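Continuing the series of single-chain predictions for the mutant panel. This is the parent chain; the variants come on the following pages.
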Amino acid sequence: MKKLLALDFGGTFVKHSLVDQNGVLTERAEYAAPLESAEAFVNTVKMLYEKYQREVDGIALSMPGIIDSDKGILHTAGAYTPVLGGKNIFQLLGDFGTRISVENDGKASILAEAWKGALQGVSSAAAIIIGSGLGGGIMMNGMLYKGVHFSSAEFGCMPSEIGTYTPTSSIAHKAGMSALLKNVALAKGMHPQQFEIAGIRSRDKADPTLPIYSGQDVFRWIDEGDPITCQVYEKWLAALVYVIYSLKLVLDPEKIVIGGGVSRNNRLLDDLKREYEKTRNMIITPGLLELELVTCQLTADANMIGAVYNWLLHFDKQEI
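Parent structure:
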């Protein structure tokens, strides 16, 4: 049975696992993200491959950014763009002597759900992955839709204000997890560096004696009915539903799945469905707004499982 080394490069950590051709994971672990240089990135892959090379048939990568997964070109690479943007990852890792695949993390996530998760047997779907920002993937006619420039499903870049086209006016700055945490901090008169917001690496401006809060703390405050947090949360839900509503009108998919760590929160899906119901007042065509909204089944493992499925699609010529 084939077994692959799956690597999911995020902005904070790189997660790895051994994944077999049935999508079963073993040997999970994570390391600090090698953001400092291309050499550090290559050395991280090399270190892990040398550890497992006798057990695996190849390497399957998941990464942020706009990626030509056929040629291996990283047009952008999220937090890795300063050191990897514009580079060919197959050439960077070409000395390893094994078959390597790479896919955008959001696209890997929807591949995973189509293979082993909530989208099995579904031909038309979209995935919205809530991380520090917003990513995702699109399935059309049973196939992953990548777009002419491999930039499909970059939902976080959608403008949120008519006529305003600046980076901070993108929907990611209203509907990502970093946006929720930052806006809760500001609304409560707290320093954003007291919250686990991606991209904030130095906390020297915050009082070191003060506690650091996470998304779990924010949802606990919501459950407790804290009025300030709940008000910010309602605006955040509305921003997410703006994305869901837009995807429904443009794609009319059978399902939209919600992923990312926050999707494991028990109340999120019901709250999104409640907010989505308000869109029915926007249009009168019967049935147009019917939508099955679900959460991803594979959550934290989706990117690695999808990366492996991408490898199988390229080298074993499997079909979705």
